[in-house]
Amino acid sequence: MKTIFLTKNDIYKGHLILVNENYPVNENDVPDLKAVNGSDITLRNTAALQLDMAINEINGRSGITPVSGYRSMEEQRNIWDDCLIENGMEFTEKYVAKPAHSEHQTGLAIDLGMTCRHIDFVRPDFPDNGICGRFKTVAAKYGFILRYPSGKEHITKIAFEPWHFRYVGTPHAEIIEKNGFVLEEYIEYIKRFKYGKQSLVFRNEYEISYLAAGNYPLEDCNIIDISGNNRDGFIITKRGVAYER
Question: Which residue of the set 161, 177, 184, 205 is catalytic?
Answer without folding.
Answer: 161
